[in-house]
Design a protein that fits this description.
Number of domains: 1
CATH class: Alpha Beta
Largest sheet: 9 strands, parallel
Number of strands: 13
CATH architecture: Alpha-Beta Barrel
Number of helices: 11
Strand order of the largest sheet: 2-10-9-8-7-6-5-4-3
Order of helices and strands: EHEEHEHEHEHEHEHEHEHEEEHH
Shape: globular
CATH superfamily: Alanine racemase
CATH topology: TIM Barrel
Distance between the termini: 38 Å
Helix content: 25-40%
């Protein structure tokens, strides 16, 4: 029998019951709100979980060619693509595997939008509602001078012909009340454009599977938005919510080093290889079988 105590380390261990619990909650929110919820690979590219995820959600969002190939071959649903900039060398490969593609600037849409339409891929434009609800600047796409998305003043009263959707992303492990603030800013700045498009993608960062998240409020918020714009398909693309608290990184202590009175446990895992977000964000992993220093 394989147990966490005798599995060779380092290893990621995912608990199926926890994963299914998250997937069932996400499916319920999608069903009750009428919004399409798709999976972002940023928080989970562990393809061995995909047969289970595919039972609930097969649509996904990709921000690289590798992610797009992974989704096309393992999930097989709609492929929503966003990249800050496409090139002559990459655009064809993105369009070949995508169902929807979001452009980060008017210039990018002018350059490649007609190619998307000709390929039968629905083109959208990322907009920036300039509403900051994220405390950590490095993960805040709505800071002044942000490179992400087009601000309202640049667009004006009408979208370029051929734009079929608007995409905004301003959340990170956020609440439904954060989304409410961003939605108010989005509608205030871009609401006059919504009669010109078919879909709105509200990006990621909706951590609806975290304990204490008010999913009922999220459902009401999305249903109210859809009642105001009934012709729009509403899309959410959370990442962390899919696999939040569903597994462990199992590591072994392979040595203990003591210098100047400080004892350091050396493990067979690292931030750089196994927990890269801990290098960028103020995350502090919860370590079992340990205690905080007195």
């Amino acid at each position: 029998m394989v147990t966490p105590q005798n599995i060779p380390t380092p290893v990621y261990l995912v608990y199926e019951d926890r994963l299914r619990r998250n997937l069932e909650l996400i499916s319920r929110v999608s069903r009750d709100s009428g919004a399409r919820i798709i999976m972002a690979f940023k928080a989970n590219a562990l393809w061995r979980t995909f047969p289970i995820i595919r039972e609930y959600v097969s649509d996904f969002t990709a921000s690289s060619l590798n992610e797009l190939q992974l989704g096309n071959t393992t999930l097989g649903g709609q492929a929503h693509v966003y990249c800050p900039a496409y090139t002559d060398q990459t655009i064809g490969r993105f369009l070949h595997g995508a169902s929807h593609i979001t452009f980060n600037s008017l210039h990018q849409f002018e350059r490649f939008g007609n190619m998307a339409l000709a390929a039968g891929v629905s083109p959208g434009l990322r907009v920036n509602p300039q509403c900051s609800v994220i405390d950590t600047d490095i993960y805040n796409p709505a800071l002044p001078g942000s490179r992400f998305g087009v601000v309202a003043d640049v667009i004006g009263r009408r979208l370029p012909s051929g734009v079929e959707g608007l995409h905004f992303h301003a959340l990170c492990e956020s609440t439904s009340f954060d989304l409410q603030r961003v939605l108010e800013a989005f509608e205030s700045q871009f609401g006059h454009l919504l009669t010109q498009v078919k879909w709105v993608n509200m990006g990621g960062g909706h951590l609806m599977t975290r304990e204490g998240y008010d999913t009922d409020h999220l459902v009401r918020l999305l249903r109210d938005f859809r009642s105001r714009y009934p012709w729009l398909e509403v899309i959410l693309e959370p990442g962390s919510a899919f696999t939040w608290r569903t597994g462990d990184l199992i590591a072994s202590v392979v040595d203990v080093v003591e210098n100047q009175g400080i004892r350091t446990a050396i493990i067979d895992a690292s931030f750089a290889c196994h927990m890269p977000d801990c290098l960028e964000m103020p995350y502090k992993p919860t370590i079992s079988e340990s205690v905080e220093p007195a």
